[in-house]
Amino acid sequence: MTMPSATISKDQQYLWHPYSSMIDPPPLFEVSHAEGCRLHLADGRTVIDGMSSWWCTVHGYNHPVLNTAVTEQLGKMSHVMFGGLTHAPAVALGEKLVALTPAGLDKVFLCDSGSISVEVAIKMALQFWLSQGVRGKSRLLTVRNGYHGDTFAAMSVCDPVNGMHHLFADVLQKQLFAPAPATPFGEPLSAGDCDELEQLLAGHHGEIAALIIEPIVQGAGGMRFYSADYLRRARELCSEYNVLLIADEIATGFGRTGKLFACEWAGITPDIMCLGKALTGGYMTMAATLCSERVALGISAGEAGCFMHGPTFMGNPLAAATANASIDLLLSDDWAAKVARIEAELRVGLAPLHGHRGVADVRCLGAIGVVELQQPALLTEIQPLLVERGVWLRPFGKLLYTMPPFVASSAEIAAITAAICEVVEIIS
Protein backbone atom coordinates (compact mmCIF):
# COMPACT_ATOMS: atom_id res chain seq x y z
CA MET A 1 0.00 0.00 0.00
CA THR A 2 1.39 3.41 -1.02
CA MET A 3 1.94 5.79 1.88
CA PRO A 4 0.16 9.18 1.58
CA SER A 5 2.33 12.19 0.78
CA ALA A 6 3.25 14.66 3.53
CA THR A 7 0.72 17.12 2.12
CA ILE A 8 -2.11 14.59 2.22
CA SER A 9 -1.14 13.44 5.72
CA LYS A 10 -1.25 17.00 7.01
CA ASP A 11 -4.45 17.68 5.10
CA GLN A 12 -6.09 14.74 6.84
CA GLN A 13 -4.84 16.05 10.17
CA TYR A 14 -6.08 19.62 9.79
CA LEU A 15 -8.58 20.10 6.98
CA TRP A 16 -12.23 19.24 6.50
CA HIS A 17 -13.31 18.83 2.87
CA PRO A 18 -16.77 19.37 1.34
CA TYR A 19 -19.28 16.64 2.10
CA SER A 20 -16.69 14.44 3.76
CA SER A 21 -16.37 12.59 7.04
CA MET A 22 -13.55 13.17 9.52
CA ILE A 23 -13.93 9.53 10.60
CA ASP A 24 -13.90 7.79 7.24
CA PRO A 25 -12.81 10.37 4.65
CA PRO A 26 -12.81 9.62 0.92
CA PRO A 27 -9.48 9.29 -0.89
CA LEU A 28 -7.54 12.48 -1.64
CA PHE A 29 -5.48 13.28 -4.70
CA GLU A 30 -2.89 16.04 -4.43
CA VAL A 31 -2.72 18.45 -7.38
CA SER A 32 0.66 20.05 -8.08
CA HIS A 33 -0.41 22.26 -10.99
CA ALA A 34 -3.02 22.55 -13.74
CA GLU A 35 -2.97 23.52 -17.40
CA GLY A 36 -5.76 23.58 -19.97
CA CYS A 37 -8.15 20.75 -19.06
CA ARG A 38 -5.50 18.76 -17.18
CA LEU A 39 -4.83 18.39 -13.48
CA HIS A 40 -1.27 17.26 -12.78
CA LEU A 41 -1.15 15.15 -9.65
CA ALA A 42 1.78 15.21 -7.27
CA ASP A 43 2.37 11.48 -7.83
CA GLY A 44 3.13 12.11 -11.51
CA ARG A 45 -0.21 11.16 -13.00
CA THR A 46 -2.30 13.53 -15.11
CA VAL A 47 -6.11 13.55 -15.27
CA ILE A 48 -8.57 15.34 -17.55
CA ASP A 49 -10.88 17.48 -15.43
CA GLY A 50 -14.35 16.50 -16.59
CA MET A 51 -15.94 18.53 -13.78
CA SER A 52 -14.58 22.02 -14.60
CA SER A 53 -13.83 22.23 -10.87
CA TRP A 54 -17.52 22.07 -9.99
CA TRP A 55 -18.63 23.64 -13.26
CA CYS A 56 -16.72 26.92 -13.20
CA THR A 57 -13.43 26.61 -15.17
CA VAL A 58 -15.04 26.97 -18.58
CA HIS A 59 -11.77 28.25 -20.12
CA GLY A 60 -9.63 25.59 -18.47
CA TYR A 61 -6.70 26.25 -16.15
CA ASN A 62 -3.80 28.67 -16.30
CA HIS A 63 -5.25 30.63 -19.20
CA PRO A 64 -2.90 33.42 -20.32
CA VAL A 65 -5.70 35.97 -20.79
CA LEU A 66 -7.09 35.43 -17.31
CA ASN A 67 -3.61 35.25 -15.80
CA THR A 68 -2.86 38.65 -17.31
CA ALA A 69 -6.11 40.13 -16.01
CA VAL A 70 -5.31 38.98 -12.48
CA THR A 71 -1.71 40.18 -12.62
CA GLU A 72 -2.56 43.61 -14.03
CA GLN A 73 -5.32 44.23 -11.51
CA LEU A 74 -3.13 43.01 -8.66
CA GLY A 75 -0.66 45.76 -9.52
CA LYS A 76 -3.40 48.38 -9.06
CA MET A 77 -5.41 47.13 -6.06
CA SER A 78 -6.60 43.72 -4.95
CA HIS A 79 -9.44 44.99 -2.81
CA VAL A 80 -11.22 48.11 -1.67
CA MET A 81 -14.49 48.33 0.25
CA PHE A 82 -17.56 48.90 -1.93
CA GLY A 83 -19.37 51.02 0.65
CA GLY A 84 -19.08 54.59 -0.64
CA LEU A 85 -16.34 53.69 -3.13
CA THR A 86 -16.42 52.32 -6.67
CA HIS A 87 -13.94 51.32 -9.36
CA ALA A 88 -13.78 50.62 -13.08
CA PRO A 89 -13.74 46.79 -12.99
CA ALA A 90 -17.01 46.61 -11.03
CA VAL A 91 -18.72 49.21 -13.21
CA ALA A 92 -17.62 47.43 -16.39
CA LEU A 93 -18.86 44.11 -15.01
CA GLY A 94 -22.26 45.53 -14.11
CA GLU A 95 -22.61 47.00 -17.59
CA LYS A 96 -21.66 43.67 -19.20
CA LEU A 97 -24.08 41.63 -17.12
CA VAL A 98 -27.02 43.93 -17.81
CA ALA A 99 -26.25 43.83 -21.54
CA LEU A 100 -25.93 40.03 -21.68
CA THR A 101 -28.74 38.81 -19.44
CA PRO A 102 -32.42 38.78 -20.47
CA ALA A 103 -33.91 42.24 -21.05
CA GLY A 104 -35.31 43.84 -17.92
CA LEU A 105 -32.62 42.75 -15.48
CA ASP A 106 -31.20 46.22 -14.98
CA LYS A 107 -29.54 46.30 -11.56
CA VAL A 108 -26.59 44.21 -10.34
CA PHE A 109 -25.67 43.31 -6.76
CA LEU A 110 -22.17 41.81 -6.65
CA CYS A 111 -21.58 39.25 -3.93
CA ASP A 112 -19.26 36.46 -2.83
CA SER A 113 -20.46 33.04 -3.96
CA GLY A 114 -23.36 31.16 -5.46
CA SER A 115 -25.05 30.36 -2.16
CA ILE A 116 -24.76 34.00 -1.13
CA SER A 117 -26.30 35.15 -4.40
CA VAL A 118 -29.31 32.95 -3.55
CA GLU A 119 -29.45 34.41 -0.04
CA VAL A 120 -29.35 37.88 -1.58
CA ALA A 121 -32.10 37.00 -4.06
CA ILE A 122 -34.36 35.66 -1.32
CA LYS A 123 -33.71 38.69 0.86
CA MET A 124 -34.47 40.96 -2.12
CA ALA A 125 -37.80 39.24 -2.65
CA LEU A 126 -38.76 39.44 1.01
CA GLN A 127 -37.66 43.05 1.42
CA PHE A 128 -39.43 44.05 -1.79
CA TRP A 129 -42.80 43.02 -0.40
CA LEU A 130 -42.09 44.49 3.03
CA SER A 131 -41.21 47.76 1.30
CA GLN A 132 -44.61 47.67 -0.41
CA GLY A 133 -46.30 47.33 2.97
CA VAL A 134 -47.21 43.70 2.26
CA ARG A 135 -46.46 41.76 5.45
CA GLY A 136 -47.84 38.35 4.55
CA LYS A 137 -45.50 37.40 1.70
CA SER A 138 -42.82 35.67 3.76
CA ARG A 139 -42.46 32.21 2.18
CA LEU A 140 -40.84 30.78 -0.93
CA LEU A 141 -42.27 28.40 -3.49
CA THR A 142 -40.01 26.03 -5.38
CA VAL A 143 -40.01 22.59 -7.01
CA ARG A 144 -38.73 19.26 -5.77
CA ASN A 145 -35.36 17.91 -6.90
CA GLY A 146 -33.94 21.41 -6.73
CA TYR A 147 -30.64 22.54 -5.23
CA HIS A 148 -29.74 26.15 -4.44
CA GLY A 149 -26.80 26.04 -2.04
CA ASP A 150 -25.69 25.22 1.47
CA THR A 151 -26.47 28.37 3.47
CA PHE A 152 -29.66 28.49 5.51
CA ALA A 153 -32.16 30.27 3.27
CA ALA A 154 -30.73 28.40 0.28
CA MET A 155 -31.04 25.07 2.11
CA SER A 156 -34.71 25.78 2.83
CA VAL A 157 -35.52 25.71 -0.90
CA CYS A 158 -33.51 22.58 -1.69
CA ASP A 159 -35.42 19.32 -2.01
CA PRO A 160 -36.56 18.55 1.58
CA VAL A 161 -36.56 14.76 1.18
CA ASN A 162 -34.04 13.72 -1.45
CA GLY A 163 -31.72 16.71 -1.06
CA MET A 164 -28.59 17.00 1.01
CA HIS A 165 -30.14 19.02 3.81
CA HIS A 166 -32.98 16.92 5.23
CA LEU A 167 -31.12 16.70 8.55
CA PHE A 168 -31.91 20.37 9.09
CA ALA A 169 -35.63 20.09 8.33
CA ASP A 170 -36.69 21.06 11.85
CA VAL A 171 -34.67 24.29 11.89
CA LEU A 172 -35.22 25.53 8.33
CA GLN A 173 -38.11 27.76 7.33
CA LYS A 174 -40.97 25.70 5.94
CA GLN A 175 -41.30 26.51 2.26
CA LEU A 176 -43.79 25.32 -0.34
CA PHE A 177 -42.81 22.63 -2.83
CA ALA A 178 -44.45 21.74 -6.13
CA PRO A 179 -43.60 18.46 -7.90
CA ALA A 180 -40.47 18.54 -10.03
CA PRO A 181 -41.12 19.32 -13.70
CA ALA A 182 -41.90 16.03 -15.43
CA THR A 183 -41.88 17.00 -19.10
CA PRO A 184 -38.43 16.26 -20.60
CA PHE A 185 -36.40 18.95 -22.31
CA GLY A 186 -37.31 19.45 -25.96
CA GLU A 187 -40.90 18.28 -25.54
CA PRO A 188 -44.13 20.29 -25.31
CA LEU A 189 -45.58 20.64 -21.84
CA SER A 190 -47.38 17.48 -20.74
CA ALA A 191 -50.98 17.85 -19.64
CA GLY A 192 -51.14 18.55 -15.93
CA ASP A 193 -47.41 19.14 -15.43
CA CYS A 194 -47.99 22.64 -14.03
CA ASP A 195 -51.28 21.91 -12.28
CA GLU A 196 -49.92 21.57 -8.73
CA LEU A 197 -47.66 24.57 -9.20
CA GLU A 198 -50.70 26.61 -10.21
CA GLN A 199 -52.76 25.24 -7.33
CA LEU A 200 -50.09 26.27 -4.84
CA LEU A 201 -49.93 29.75 -6.33
CA ALA A 202 -53.70 30.07 -6.39
CA GLY A 203 -54.05 28.94 -2.80
CA HIS A 204 -51.02 30.59 -1.23
CA HIS A 205 -50.05 33.61 -3.36
CA GLY A 206 -50.85 35.89 -0.45
CA GLU A 207 -47.95 34.38 1.50
CA ILE A 208 -45.52 33.61 -1.35
CA ALA A 209 -42.80 36.20 -1.96
CA ALA A 210 -41.18 34.37 -4.88
CA LEU A 211 -40.87 31.18 -6.86
CA ILE A 212 -37.23 30.12 -7.09
CA ILE A 213 -36.23 27.63 -9.76
CA GLU A 214 -33.19 26.42 -11.70
CA PRO A 215 -34.08 27.08 -15.35
CA ILE A 216 -34.09 24.04 -17.64
CA VAL A 217 -31.46 22.05 -15.68
CA GLN A 218 -31.92 20.91 -12.10
CA GLY A 219 -28.29 20.50 -11.06
CA ALA A 220 -27.08 18.89 -7.86
CA GLY A 221 -30.64 17.83 -7.03
CA GLY A 222 -30.60 15.24 -9.81
CA MET A 223 -29.14 16.61 -13.07
CA ARG A 224 -32.60 16.62 -14.63
CA PHE A 225 -33.41 18.48 -17.87
CA TYR A 226 -36.99 19.75 -18.26
CA SER A 227 -39.17 21.40 -20.89
CA ALA A 228 -38.80 25.09 -21.69
CA ASP A 229 -42.61 25.19 -21.80
CA TYR A 230 -42.68 24.50 -18.05
CA LEU A 231 -40.44 27.47 -17.35
CA ARG A 232 -42.48 29.65 -19.69
CA ARG A 233 -45.69 28.67 -17.89
CA ALA A 234 -44.08 29.29 -14.49
CA ARG A 235 -43.27 32.85 -15.60
CA GLU A 236 -46.88 33.37 -16.68
CA LEU A 237 -48.23 32.05 -13.39
CA CYS A 238 -45.92 34.23 -11.30
CA SER A 239 -47.09 37.30 -13.20
CA GLU A 240 -50.72 36.25 -12.86
CA TYR A 241 -50.53 35.69 -9.10
CA ASN A 242 -48.22 38.65 -8.31
CA VAL A 243 -45.29 36.52 -7.17
CA LEU A 244 -41.66 37.28 -8.05
CA LEU A 245 -39.69 34.77 -10.11
CA ILE A 246 -36.08 34.01 -9.12
CA ALA A 247 -33.99 32.16 -11.71
CA ASP A 248 -30.99 30.36 -10.21
CA GLU A 249 -28.55 30.36 -13.16
CA ILE A 250 -25.47 29.67 -11.04
CA ALA A 251 -24.81 26.34 -12.76
CA THR A 252 -26.42 27.10 -16.13
CA GLY A 253 -25.20 30.62 -16.84
CA PHE A 254 -22.53 31.53 -19.39
CA GLY A 255 -23.28 28.91 -22.00
CA ARG A 256 -23.40 25.60 -20.18
CA THR A 257 -26.75 24.48 -21.67
CA GLY A 258 -26.11 25.77 -25.20
CA LYS A 259 -27.70 29.17 -24.56
CA LEU A 260 -25.81 31.96 -22.85
CA PHE A 261 -28.41 31.76 -20.07
CA ALA A 262 -30.87 28.89 -19.72
CA CYS A 263 -33.82 31.30 -19.41
CA GLU A 264 -33.30 31.98 -23.12
CA TRP A 265 -34.63 28.51 -23.96
CA ALA A 266 -38.03 29.75 -22.76
CA GLY A 267 -37.61 33.36 -23.85
CA ILE A 268 -38.43 34.67 -20.37
CA THR A 269 -37.05 37.27 -17.99
CA PRO A 270 -37.15 36.54 -14.26
CA ASP A 271 -37.54 39.31 -11.71
CA ILE A 272 -34.29 38.24 -10.05
CA MET A 273 -31.40 36.15 -11.42
CA CYS A 274 -28.51 34.49 -9.57
CA LEU A 275 -25.14 34.04 -11.27
CA GLY A 276 -21.88 32.49 -10.07
CA LYS A 277 -19.52 29.59 -10.87
CA ALA A 278 -18.33 30.39 -14.43
CA LEU A 279 -18.59 34.16 -13.84
CA THR A 280 -14.83 34.48 -13.28
CA GLY A 281 -13.82 31.40 -15.26
CA GLY A 282 -13.09 29.62 -11.99
CA TYR A 283 -10.28 31.99 -11.02
CA MET A 284 -11.87 33.91 -8.16
CA THR A 285 -14.89 33.54 -5.93
CA MET A 286 -17.58 35.95 -7.08
CA ALA A 287 -21.30 35.93 -7.78
CA ALA A 288 -23.98 38.37 -8.82
CA THR A 289 -27.68 38.84 -8.17
CA LEU A 290 -29.47 40.83 -10.85
CA CYS A 291 -32.96 42.26 -10.52
CA SER A 292 -35.48 44.35 -12.37
CA GLU A 293 -35.81 48.08 -11.83
CA ARG A 294 -39.21 47.39 -10.28
CA VAL A 295 -37.58 45.28 -7.56
CA ALA A 296 -34.66 47.67 -7.00
CA LEU A 297 -36.79 50.79 -6.78
CA GLY A 298 -39.45 49.01 -4.76
CA ILE A 299 -36.91 48.02 -2.13
CA SER A 300 -35.27 51.46 -2.11
CA ALA A 301 -38.61 53.24 -1.60
CA GLY A 302 -39.37 51.24 1.54
CA GLU A 303 -38.85 51.91 5.22
CA ALA A 304 -35.15 50.99 5.24
CA GLY A 305 -34.41 53.19 2.23
CA CYS A 306 -31.77 50.73 1.06
CA PHE A 307 -31.17 47.03 0.50
CA MET A 308 -30.06 45.54 3.80
CA HIS A 309 -27.03 43.58 2.69
CA GLY A 310 -23.33 44.43 2.38
CA PRO A 311 -20.66 41.74 2.01
CA THR A 312 -17.11 42.72 2.96
CA PHE A 313 -15.75 41.59 -0.40
CA MET A 314 -18.64 42.93 -2.46
CA GLY A 315 -17.41 44.15 -5.85
CA ASN A 316 -13.87 42.92 -5.18
CA PRO A 317 -11.70 44.55 -7.89
CA LEU A 318 -9.53 41.49 -8.45
CA ALA A 319 -12.55 39.25 -8.97
CA ALA A 320 -14.39 41.85 -11.06
CA ALA A 321 -11.41 42.34 -13.38
CA THR A 322 -11.12 38.58 -13.80
CA ALA A 323 -14.85 38.26 -14.49
CA ASN A 324 -14.62 40.94 -17.17
CA ALA A 325 -11.73 39.12 -18.82
CA SER A 326 -13.55 35.79 -18.60
CA ILE A 327 -16.74 37.15 -20.16
CA ASP A 328 -14.79 38.90 -22.93
CA LEU A 329 -12.87 35.68 -23.60
CA LEU A 330 -16.10 33.68 -23.79
CA LEU A 331 -17.72 36.13 -26.21
CA SER A 332 -14.62 36.55 -28.36
CA ASP A 333 -14.71 32.91 -29.38
CA ASP A 334 -17.53 30.84 -30.86
CA TRP A 335 -18.54 29.39 -27.50
CA ALA A 336 -21.88 28.15 -28.87
CA ALA A 337 -20.14 26.04 -31.52
CA LYS A 338 -17.79 24.61 -28.90
CA VAL A 339 -20.68 23.66 -26.63
CA ALA A 340 -22.63 22.17 -29.55
CA ARG A 341 -19.59 20.07 -30.51
CA ILE A 342 -19.15 18.86 -26.94
CA GLU A 343 -22.83 17.91 -26.72
CA ALA A 344 -22.61 15.92 -29.96
CA GLU A 345 -19.44 14.15 -28.78
CA LEU A 346 -20.94 13.36 -25.37
CA ARG A 347 -23.98 11.83 -27.06
CA VAL A 348 -21.79 9.63 -29.25
CA GLY A 349 -19.41 8.65 -26.47
CA LEU A 350 -22.13 7.76 -23.97
CA ALA A 351 -24.39 6.04 -26.52
CA PRO A 352 -23.12 2.52 -25.61
CA LEU A 353 -24.66 2.92 -22.16
CA HIS A 354 -28.23 3.27 -23.45
CA GLY A 355 -30.02 0.12 -22.33
CA HIS A 356 -27.07 -1.06 -20.27
CA ARG A 357 -28.06 -3.32 -17.38
CA GLY A 358 -26.68 -0.96 -14.76
CA VAL A 359 -27.99 2.27 -16.30
CA ALA A 360 -31.40 3.88 -15.81
CA ASP A 361 -30.91 6.79 -18.19
CA VAL A 362 -28.37 8.64 -20.33
CA ARG A 363 -28.98 12.30 -21.14
CA CYS A 364 -27.01 15.20 -22.59
CA LEU A 365 -27.65 18.91 -22.98
CA GLY A 366 -25.02 21.43 -23.96
CA ALA A 367 -21.76 20.67 -22.19
CA ILE A 368 -23.47 18.33 -19.73
CA GLY A 369 -23.46 14.55 -19.97
CA VAL A 370 -25.28 12.44 -17.38
CA VAL A 371 -25.38 8.71 -16.75
CA GLU A 372 -28.02 7.82 -14.17
CA LEU A 373 -27.25 4.44 -12.65
CA GLN A 374 -29.81 1.90 -11.46
CA GLN A 375 -28.25 1.89 -7.99
CA PRO A 376 -26.20 4.39 -5.99
CA ALA A 377 -22.47 3.91 -6.41
CA LEU A 378 -19.77 4.57 -3.86
CA LEU A 379 -17.58 7.60 -4.52
CA THR A 380 -14.70 5.78 -2.85
CA GLU A 381 -15.05 2.98 -5.40
CA ILE A 382 -15.67 4.98 -8.59
CA GLN A 383 -13.27 7.89 -8.24
CA PRO A 384 -10.04 5.83 -8.05
CA LEU A 385 -11.21 3.80 -11.07
CA LEU A 386 -11.68 7.02 -13.03
CA VAL A 387 -8.30 8.41 -11.95
CA GLU A 388 -6.65 5.18 -13.11
CA ARG A 389 -8.14 5.94 -16.53
CA GLY A 390 -6.86 9.52 -16.52
CA VAL A 391 -10.16 11.25 -15.81
CA TRP A 392 -11.37 13.35 -12.88
CA LEU A 393 -15.09 13.25 -12.11
CA ARG A 394 -17.04 13.53 -8.87
CA PRO A 395 -20.11 11.28 -8.98
CA PHE A 396 -22.86 11.50 -6.39
CA GLY A 397 -25.75 9.19 -5.57
CA LYS A 398 -26.83 7.42 -8.74
CA LEU A 399 -25.26 10.04 -11.00
CA LEU A 400 -22.04 9.70 -12.94
CA TYR A 401 -21.82 12.89 -14.95
CA THR A 402 -19.45 15.29 -16.68
CA MET A 403 -19.48 19.05 -17.23
CA PRO A 404 -16.15 19.60 -19.01
CA PRO A 405 -14.46 22.93 -19.79
CA PHE A 406 -15.58 24.45 -23.08
CA VAL A 407 -11.98 24.24 -24.32
CA ALA A 408 -11.90 20.45 -23.99
CA SER A 409 -10.70 18.84 -27.22
CA SER A 410 -12.51 16.07 -29.04
CA ALA A 411 -9.86 13.64 -27.81
CA GLU A 412 -10.39 14.75 -24.22
CA ILE A 413 -14.17 14.36 -24.48
CA ALA A 414 -13.65 10.90 -25.97
CA ALA A 415 -11.36 9.97 -23.07
CA ILE A 416 -13.95 11.14 -20.54
CA THR A 417 -16.80 9.18 -22.09
CA ALA A 418 -14.63 6.08 -22.58
CA ALA A 419 -13.67 6.16 -18.89
CA ILE A 420 -17.32 6.50 -17.87
CA CYS A 421 -18.32 3.53 -20.04
CA GLU A 422 -15.49 1.37 -18.70
CA VAL A 423 -16.26 2.18 -15.07
CA VAL A 424 -19.98 1.54 -15.50
CA GLU A 425 -19.11 -1.86 -16.95
CA ILE A 426 -16.90 -2.64 -13.95
CA ILE A 427 -19.34 -1.60 -11.23
CA SER A 428 -22.54 -2.99 -12.84
From TrEMBL:
Pathway the protein acts in: Cofactor biosynthesis; biotin biosynthesis; 7,8-diaminononanoate from 8-amino-7-oxononanoate (SAM route): step 1/1
SUPFAM superfamilies cross-referenced by the UniProt entry: PLP-dependent transferases
Principal place of residence: cytoplasm
EC number: 2.6.1.62
Localization annotation: Cytoplasm
GO terms for cellular component: cytoplasm
Cofactor(s) the record lists: pyridoxal 5'-phosphate
InterPro entries named in the record: Aminotrans_3 (IPR005814), Aminotrans_3_PPA_site (IPR049704), BioA (IPR005815), PyrdxlP-dep_Trfase (IPR015424), PyrdxlP-dep_Trfase_major (IPR015421), PyrdxlP-dep_Trfase_small (IPR015422)
N6-(pyridoxal phosphate)lysine, modified sites: K277
Annotated catalysed reactions: (8S)-8-amino-7-oxononanoate + S-adenosyl-L-methionine = S-adenosyl-4-methylsulfanyl-2-oxobutanoate + (7R,8S)-7,8-diammoniononanoate
Keywords attached to this entry: Aminotransferase, Biotin biosynthesis, Cytoplasm, Pyridoxal phosphate, S-adenosyl-L-methionine, Transferase
Catalytic class of the enzyme: transferase
Keyword Amino-acid biosynthesis: no
Gene3D superfamilies according to UniProt: Aspartate Aminotransferase, domain 1, Type I PLP-dependent aspartate aminotransferase-like (Major domain)
Binding positions for pyridoxal 5'-phosphate per the UniProt entry: G114, S115, D248, P311, T312
Gene Ontology biological process terms from the UniProt entry: biotin biosynthetic process
Residues annotated for substrate binding in this entry: W54, Y147, K277, G310, R394
Family: Belongs to the class-III pyridoxal-phosphate-dependent aminotransferase family. BioA subfamily.
Subunit organization: Homodimer.
Biological function: Catalyzes the transfer of the alpha-amino group from S-adenosyl-L-methionine (SAM) to 7-keto-8-aminopelargonic acid (KAPA) to form 7,8-diaminopelargonic acid (DAPA). It is the only aminotransferase known to utilize SAM as an amino donor.
UniProt-recorded name of the protein: Adenosylmethionine-8-amino-7-oxononanoate aminotransferase
Organism of provenance: Gammaproteobacteria bacterium LSUCC0057
